[in-house]
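Take one record.
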Amino acid sequence: MHSGSQILAALQKIPQKPTIHAIARREFPVSSNTRLTTEADSARWPDTLKKLEPTPDVFMSALGTTRAQAGSFAAQRAVDLDLNLALARAAKESGIKTYVLISSGAVSSTSRLPYSKMKGELEDAVKTLQIPHTVIVKPGLLVGTREDLRLTEAVLQNIARALRMVSQKWLTDWWAQDVDVIGRAAVAAAVECSEGKRPEGIWILHQSDIVRLGKQAAQ
């Protein structure tokens, strides 16, 4: 499962059972309090978001692809940067008060690495939108089951799992997090913002914050 699936799973476990809107390319099973909108053309998703009624309090994005899935880096950039930014702007225009972006650790718009530079450019862009609460979640290596794992990621995941058998806190928490922990942390941060427990502004969740919030939410 990827971060988006785990975010949806965490949202569906909120005791207050809020109305959840999900936008996706295809149908999938959802809870009774989830309204699924299917739109095969992802270019239409920003308009779909703006048409949701009533306007959601929170918008969360774990949208992303890989170069292999997309077919080229330009096509990956169209999703990871352009579509994500269009959705963030739609959230701003809709009056959504809390925006949560699942990004990645150690990325920068000044990086010479194309992927890191792209992710950093997205972070910089969403910060300028001045959505009242902007939460950027920056996990390390995602530990979990994904069909699109690259060889290097698969090797590192196996290393992380092996180290976790020795000591999760000291050997893996600082560089590798389970996707379910990331999902719980992102939702916990969104709830804190929507309930007025956090001051307005930009909130960066680094890996230690993700682990702390994710574990607290599981208790």
User: Anything to note?
Assistant: The mean pLDDT is 85.
